[in-house]
Amino acid sequence: MPRSKPSGDGSSYGRPRGSPGASSVKAGQDAASTSVQGGRSQRSRASPGRSRPSPADRRPAEPATPEGRAARAFVDQLAGNPRTVKGKSARELADLFTAAGYTSYPEQTRKAGTSGKAVQVRVFGHPLITNIEVHPGGGRHTPEGSPYWRISLNVNGRIWVVPGDFRGAERLAGQVVRHDE
Asked: Could you give phi then psi for residue 155, rounded to 5 degrees?
C-alpha cells in the first residue's frame, strides 16, 4: 500500500528544510565524499594504473612438502604445456591444485544441452586457470572412452586438449591441442 503524505503544511513530513539537522547531514555527506576521493587519489599515487593486486601478489605461499612442490610445478606449467592433463581425472586435477596451495573442487556439470558426463574442476586463486572440464567421451565430439579436457583461462580464453578422433575441432573457440600427436 503506498504511503500517503500527511496533511497540513508539510512540517511533519520528513526533515524541514533549513533545520539544524539538515546542514549536518549535508556536511557528513560532503566529508565522506572527500574522504573517499582522497583515498582513491592516494592509492593511485602509490600504484598508478593498478586497482587490484597482480597475479603474483595473490599467489599462495610455496608448499612445504616435496609432493606440494611437485604439484605446484605441474599446475604452474599447465597453461604452457596443456598436454600434461592427458590421463588425469577431475579428482586428480583437483587434488594437484589443492596440494599446490590453491582452492579447487570437482563438480558435476549441470549445463543444459550436454551429455551430462563432464566434470568441472573449479579453481580459485590461480593466476591463469579458472576451470578445467574433464569429459570421458561418448558424446557428440568423441566416441565412448575417448576423453578430452577444456582448460578455461582468465585471460586467453580456452585451451582444448583433444584426441585425434575429436569431431568439430574446427568450430571450437580457443586453442585446440591434439594430445595424441
From this structure: -125, -35
> How many CB atoms sit inside 10 A of residue 115's CB?
14
CA 15/CA 28 separation, integer angstroms: 16
64 and 40 fall within a common domain: no
Q: Are 86 and 74 in contact (CB under 8 A)?
A: no
d(CA 47, CA 32): 23
Contact (Cβ atoms closer than 8 angstroms) between residue 93 and residue 85: yes
Residue 1 lies in a domain: no
Phi, psi values for residue 166, rounded to 5°: -70, 130
Structural domain contains residue 165: yes
**Residue 47 and residue 24 share a domain:** yes
Q: What is the dihedral of CA 142, 147, 153, 157, to 10 degrees?
A: -10
Residues in the chain, overall count:
181
Name the nearest CA neighbour of 121 among 75, 73, 177: 75
At 111-133, the pLDDT tens digits run: 766 667 889 999 999 999 999 99
CA–CA separation, 116 vs 51, rounded Å?
Answer: 39
pTM over the 0.90 mark = no
Q: Report the number of distinct structural domains present in the chain.
A: 2
